[in-house]
Task: structure prediction
Amino acid sequence: MSTQQWWNHAVGYEAYIRSFADGNGDGVGDFVGMLDKLDHLAWLGIDILWITPFYVSPMRDWGYDVADYAAIDPTYGTLDDFDAVIDKAHRLNIRVLIDIVPNHTSDQHRWFQAALAEPESKYRDYYVWADAPEDGSLPNNWVGYFGGKTWTLDEASGQYYLHLFLPEQPDLNWRNPDVLDEFDDILRFWLDRGVDGFRIDVAQALVKDEQLRSNPQIGPSDDSMFRWEQWDAFDHQHDILQPESVDIFKRWNRIASEYGALLLGETYDLKMLDKLDRLVSGGDAIHVGFWFGAMHMDWDAGQIRSTFDFPLSQISAGLGWAQNSHDEHRSVTRFGGGDVGRRRALSLAVLLLGLPGLPFLYQGEELGLPSGELPPEAKLDPIGGDDPNAGRDGTRTPMPWAPGPGMGFTSPGVEPWLPFGGRTDADTAEVQRNEPTSTAHAYRELLAVRRSLTSIAGEDLTWIDSGDHVVAFRRGDIAFVANVSEVASAMPFDGDVLYRSDAGTGQTLLADEAAIVRVRT
Result:
């Protein structure tokens, strides 16, 4: 095993920068605020910090529409502020990943502006264009990740450009060698500043079918349907997971290897695992690919087992795990809300931290936060129509750091960019860190126990026969077990309990309780 793989047995943490900590009092998170809060991550026991996009952007998709890949948006500070965060994180033994957004740029990026203004320039081929069909239809039937059609007409030239997301996010043409060269320079720019790797946005979608063929339609689809329903109405043979993507990531891997850096892919596909396997299992492309099944399941033993077993049985290496992110409702809310949701989310964290691979927490997960509750007039997410619950704002509300006006996120009297969404003093990091029985302390203890279990790093997972309402597996002599029922249940083995998420005793698990156990052989 390569000595550069420092991420083995690590635990990561996603910081959504706009909502993490505001250091200059304008209501938006920034690097000055992040610098002040890194000690919290060290206290928690985090090894890797992933920071969402901070590049110059018109913010149509809150930074995932990049206008300059080598500059900090003034909203978030300066390169000096960024450097200070990297330096302090490293002093705290925290590695830093930054988000790279290679599938598309902003329509305000100089490349796309040149492509529009000068169709004969080299920048035209930086993007994916198609002639308008004579019958007035679109170039193909592809639908976007945000729902709706993926082609917008450039009336000046009569051609359409492709966008798998918003029209303001035109897709790059990764079949153009110049695009590869540009990103070589971008990666090196940030690696030379000390970053420890990249979380690669939409890693599964970079290369498109060369002929831009339509996807087979396998179900009904119209613009009134929820975005994932529209997406699932097609067999995505031609718009994502093209085999040539592997060559891009092999090229990136060679660059990353020079710096000992990690490539973490947002590999958001829950079906075509054979194609995902090619991206992550060779060890010479993406090192770790996220598996997001835990964000799309119910609190049910059978679903939990299948959500884990499906990727583990088909992807031979390099899985990342998360039950929360900036794109989905928080698991506390999905699992019932209140104390029930918090107990279940913590128990799922016990299981996720026991799986082979790299687990990530999302900011506020360690506080047991549910999704924020926002009025319709507060909606800022460009997706989801008029329904605030259909968008992503509720999971992106500002981090509650301390009681009082501004909740420690921003200055008293300053309106944050999103409302706090109903947070209370008990939700804040300050209150929870001062309360030994809090959710924050439960996560801190969980991470400490998991860190101590270095012996499991090379062990495969073996399922334990545990009935209909208990999920249990072993890695070596360490078992991870959760009672996914409303009544107490006995553990399916004898052992010494190293960690438990609730107040059960002996070999008994309370309802929704999880434990880590050294099994007696």
